[in-house]
From TrEMBL:
GO MF, one annotated term: transmembrane transporter activity
Subcellular location(s) of the protein: Cell membrane
GO cellular component: plasma membrane
Membrane-traversing stretches: 36-56, 68-86, 135-156, 168-187, 218-238, 258-277, 289-307, 313-331, 352-373, 379-401
Pfam families listed in its UniProt record: MFS_1
Residue ranges the record marks as coiled coil: none
Gene3D superfamilies, per database record: MFS general substrate transporter like domains
Superkingdom assignment: Bacteria
The protein's name: Major facilitator transporter
Record flagged with keyword Cytoplasm: no
Keywords noted in UniProt: Cell membrane, Membrane, Transmembrane, Transmembrane helix, Transport
Length: 424
């Protein structure tokens, strides 16, 4: 949880600043398209997530979960810190946005490999019947990272003027990453290797080409997992990707500190419902919890935007709270479900690849698509239609994907399948 919180803090602080800062500091020369291009840079990194998943997933299946997680943490931390020292375009011209995008790509490579290792390290340490609960802890890194990133940004914006914030204030959250990364490394160095991987080492059962095996024999599972996550990820990136915050400030004229504080409250609800969903999935099944979450997400989509449009702080908080509970229900069981979908020897590669592809299909350009839909149609409700369509896709996948909600994790030689009909 500590490691993924730091990873997602780094990743989300970029997304938040893309809508609040980077359009004017790095892309001002693009005129009216500056904000759209700034949001697009959030998505660029997602194309490198599958690359990171493939590379780090291969290493995770070959040399272990723990060692690869230390590498991804370092890569993310260094990239984030360097973003905090890039001069603006007014000082170094086109070099500034190029450096920004290159460092964002490195963030994408790190994020692509991070989640799979964190999920497996937690789930493969879990006692029988508690995989969902243990797997929920690395999932908490996303809402905790959102809480931390919005909190730090809210404090900085409250303590600086608009001119100071744009000049140097926005750099503070990126530079803080140096401290966080040190804490994360201390914790991860003390975590023991997964017992499942240790057994693979002892028995000589490690796959020689785990990625190739996944692509050749388990691609339906990868596709199913990707579509399932895409529905959650696109909705989640309305807040983690900075769209809601930017819309509230630019279109509804709410103050930065107020909307950031509202999102922090919602992040607590997301964190709580994520942990609850992991616990509940051990009792009723992973996919049943997913279905409840997707139905709530679908039903709440348009009331969410209606309440947001009031610009009333109390109603905005209510909108974000219910929205975040739905996100938690479709996020909490993910680590356990993905781990149970793949044999142990290729589990890192399979889970990481499904997650990374789902992120590309879902969250990669969700803020940019939302901004384009809002600008093109003149109404934020068009964004609701887009998110509702993806939610329906995710809901359908839960009836196609056959999970293993109460059985031990499959070991090498076992297979999981996608089957038509009811799932556990």
């Amino acid at each position: 949880m500590a490691g993924t919180t730091i990873e997602w803090y780094d990743f989300f602080i970029y997304a938040l600043c893309a809508g609040l800062v980077f359009d004017s500091q790095f892309f001002a020369g693009l005129g009216g398209n500056a904000l759209l291009i700034s949001f697009a840079t959030i998505g660029i990194s997602f194309f490198f997530r599958p690359v990171g998943a493939a590379l780090v997933g291969h290493l995770g299946d070959r040399i272990g979960r723990r060692r690869t997680l230390i590498f991804t943490l370092l890569l993310m931390g260094i990239s984030t810190t360097l973003i905090g020292v890039i001069p603006p375009a007014s000082a170094i011209g086109d070099t500034a946005p190029v450096l920004l995008i290159l460092l964002r790509i490195l963030q994408g490579l790190s994020a692509g490999g991070e989640w799979g290792g964190a999920a497996l390290l937690a789930v493969e340490h879990a006692p029988a019947g508690r995989s969902g609960l243990f797997g929920a802890y690395p999932q908490l890194g996303a809402p905790a990272g959102l809480l931390l990133s919005n909190g730090v940004l809210a404090v900085v914006t409250a303590m600086t003027t608009q001119q100071q914030f744009l000049a140097w204030g926005w750099r503070i959250p990126f530079l803080i990453s140096v401290v966080l990364i040190a804490v994360g490394l201390i914790i991860r160095r003390k975590v023991s290797e997964s017992p499942v991987f240790q057994k693979l080492q002892q028995t000589g059962s490690r796959a020689k080409t785990p990625l190739l095996t996944v692509v050749k024999h388990h691609w339906p599972l990868v596709l199913g997992g990707a579509l399932l996550f895409a529905a959650n990820n696109a909705a989640g990136y309305m807040t983690t990707g900075g769209y809601v915050q930017t819309y509230a400030v630019n279109s509804l004229h709410m103050s930065k500190s107020v909307i950031l504080s509202a999102v922090m409250v919602a992040a607590v609800a997301w964190l709580t419902s994520t942990l609850f969903a992991g616990w509940l999935s051990d009792r009723v099944g992973r996919l049943k919890v997913y279905r409840v979450g997707f139905v709530l997400q679908l039903v709440w989509m348009f009331p969410f935007f209606a309440l947001l449009n009031t610009a009333n702080l109390g109603l905005v908080v209510v909108a974000l709270l219910v929205y975040s509970i739905a996100l938690g229900l479709t996020y909490g069981p993910q680590a356990a479900l993905y781990s149970e979908m793949f044999p142990a020897a290729i589990r890192y590669s399979g889970a990481a690849l499904a997650y990374a592809i789902g992120a590309v299909l879902g969250g990669a350009f969700a803020p940019m698509i939302a901004q384009a839909l809002q600008s093109g149609t003149g109404t934020v409700y068009s964004v609701g239609v887009y998110l509702a369509a993806l939610t329906v896709v995710g809901l359908v996948v839960t009836f196609v994907l056959k999970g293993r909600s109460t059985t031990p994790l499959p070991t090498q030689g076992e297979t999981s399948t996608i089957a038509t009909g009811s799932a556990s």
